[in-house]
Each structure stands twice: as C-alpha cells, then as structure tokens.
Amino acid sequence: MPIKFMDLAAQNQEIRRRVEAEFERIHSATAYVGGPQVAEFEQRFAGYLGVRHVIGVGSGTDALRLALIAAGAGPGDEVITAPMTFVATAEAIFQTGAVPVFVDVDPDTATISVEGVNRYLERGEFHTPNGPRAIVPVHLYGLPAAMGALREVANRYNLAVVEDACQAHGARIHCAGEWKRAGAVGTAGCFSFYPGKNLGAWGEAGAVATDDSQLAARVGLLRDHGRLSHYLHQECGYNARMDTLQAAVLLAKLERLEEWNARRRAIARRYQELLAGCAVQTPMEPEGTQSCHHLYVIRSPRRDRIFEALSRAGIGCGIHYPVPLHLQPACGALGYRSGDFPVSERIADTVLSLPMHPHLTDREVGKVADTVRTALDAL
Ligand SMILES: Cc1ncc(COP(=O)(O)O)c(C=O)c1O
Q1: Beta strands of the chain (E only): which ranges?
Q2: How many Å apart are CA 13 and CA 8, to the nearest integer?
Q3: What are the pLDDT digits (tens) for 130-168?
C-alpha cells in the first residue's frame, strides 16, 4: 500500500458533516462574501492564538503583503528575511515596493540567524535610501524562529517584526517568561490556510494576527478596497478578503487542530526514535520552542538516493526547498550569487521531507523509517 505524504481525504472525513451543514447555512443566506462565519473564525482564531485581532484575508501571501504595508514597509525600505523559505515570503516584500534583503539561516534550525541579522544591522551598509523597516522571520517547517532574541534586535533598531507563520499553526515559543503561539509574538503574524497546512481550507485563505489595533484596522481596510462604508473608500486597497466558504471549513478544522498537532508531535518523536543511529540528521527543537511539525524534514548528503528508494516503495516525499530564494530567477534583480548564503545552500542540497500528517499510522511511520535505513545501508 502506498504511503501518502499528506492525507486530506482522511482529514475531510472527520469534519465533512459539520462543514456541509455550515455550507447549507451559507447557501441559504447567499452570504458568500463577508458572511458571519468570517468574523466568527477571526474571533475563535484570535482566542486560540491569544491575540486581540485576527483579520481573515485571501491567502498567506495577502497576509504578508498587507501586514507589511500596515507596518510601514514601502518603496525606499528594506525588509530582512531568510533565503530558506517559500517564494511567497519574498514576493510579498517586493509587492509592498520594499526590497528583500536576505540573511543566512542558523545551521541547526534553518530559521533566520539572529547573529546574522545583528551583523547586518551593525554594519549599517544598506541598499535603499531608508534602510531596514522590518524583519520577516519564517517559522520554517513549523519550528518557530528565535523570536525573543529577534524582538530585542528589532526593538534596538526600531523595526517591525512580521512573522511568517504560514507553516506554524499552533507552534509555541517561550518568550518574555511565557509560552506564546507562533504568530502572536511579533508586531503581526501571518498565516496561510492553503489546503495542506496544519490548519488548511478547501481553497485559498490566510489571516493576519496582531495585538496592535491600528495595524489591524489598516489591514481590515486594505483587504477590502480601502472601504470605509459601501461606496466610500479611504485609500486604494486590494480585493484580499477571506471567502465565507473557507471560513466555514476553518471553523470546523480549528476545533481539531490541537488533537491533530498532538498526533504530529507523536509521529515526530517516533521518527526520531526509529532513525536514531541512522546517518541522517533529524529535526531539532531548541529549548523554549515547540514545533507544530508541519513538515518532517531530515537532512542527508545522500538525499537523492533516499528520495528514490522512498518513491520506489510508493512512499510520498518532497524537497522543501531545493533552490533558496537568493538563487531563484524571480529574485535575480537583487544581484545575489551562489555562495552568498552557504548554510541555506547546503540545507537546500540535503533536505528531504518525509510523510507527515495526523492520520499516518505507527506502522506507516515504521515502514518509512525502515525504507530510509535500508536505502542508506545499501550504499
Ligand atoms: C513560508 C510560507 N510563506 C508564505 C506562504 C504563502 O501562503 P499562500 O500560499 O497561502 O499565499 C506559504 C505557503 O505555502 C509558506 O509556506
């Protein structure tokens, strides 16, 4: 039997009836845009994260773009981020008119290096007239970046911190003496609800989380054509609203998120036990962080060999991400070259994502680990 990389069908089975009942309500009211489910989801997700405001938007990319604009990023500014991420992190920065500036990642966690950010800011040689305006740490694969230290640096240089929490629904960080949710620590946190995420819609959706009422109000305007009232527009904004049907799916799935994340954590522990002593690097979780294990990413210089063996055995796997952003044609205008971010480049050459979803059975986890082990033994 093949082993799926993710299993959305199994997930849907658990929530299908609840969602269909909610869809019926939406159809009866024909409230496809701005229906009550959007506000209800915003309120529940804000409660879950422990923030004052959540603003539902059309995608994670919308969330990043609107949060950055609302945090003041625009033409003439730089926004610092890591090259080891999905392209949308940089796209959103470009879309504000600001310039993305990359800082390499920490070799253990693959999240942005705080020392690297510090060094860049201390050097003070900036690429734009205004210099840096914000930092976008990416909680890669569900592991929170070093938010406590990053917040200190940001405060020192008066920068906004816009968390890319698009892979980190339910991850936690110990910060300033308490555990907080990823996305609830910086100036704003940005989420994607792309279907395969830990909290995924049945289409496109995203959200911005923040304690800052002014920022929340601006994101609220920007997502809806800068609208103050039906035909009165404060500024030119975007059509970046959350779809009501997606909000209904998210309401149902949010109720299961903790349980699903607990199962992901148990699977991660099992992988770690089964792969102990095997020549692969398993993901680490520094003290004070709790990953939500969106992806379970191992590292090996023999990654391609393992990938082939898993594929031959009918086991779904992936590479997140084979090309770091500074080497993407889409970022060519920034002028970076191969060798500029050696840690990210090494990670991109060695990472391999194993199946990870809450409906994976212990037997399947065992089969995946055995296949990895056998592939390496055969060398
Ligand atoms: C790290 C990261 N940032 C941003 C995004 C963009 O989210 P969306 O696809 O919802 O626009 C994603 C989505 O995969 C992501 O993984």
Answers
A1: 53-57, 77-81, 99-102, 131-136, 160-164, 172-175, 178-181, 188-192, 206-210, 227-229, 232-233, 289-290, 296-299, 351-354
A2: 9
A3: 999 999 999 999 999 999 999 999 999 999 999 999 999
Low-confidence ranges of the chain (pLDDT < 70): 379
Distance in Å, CA 247 to ligand 1 centroid: 18
Kindly report the protein residue whose alpha carbon is nearest to atom 7 of ligand 1.
Answer: 60
State the angle between helix axes of 36-49 and 244-254 in degrees (0 to 180), rounded to the nearest 10.
40
**Residues within a 6 A CB radius of ligand 1:** 59-61, 85-86, 88-89, 138, 164, 166-167, 192, 194, 206
Q: Which two tokens stand for residue 303?
A: 């990654």
CB 117 within 8 A of CB 139: no
pTM greater than the 0.90 cutoff = yes
Distance CA(289)–CA(283), nearest Å, equals 12
Task: Work out which ligand 1 atom sits closest to the CA atom of 205.
Answer: 10
**Residue 25: how many other CB atoms lie within 10 Å:** 14
> Which H or E element spans position 373?
helix 362-377
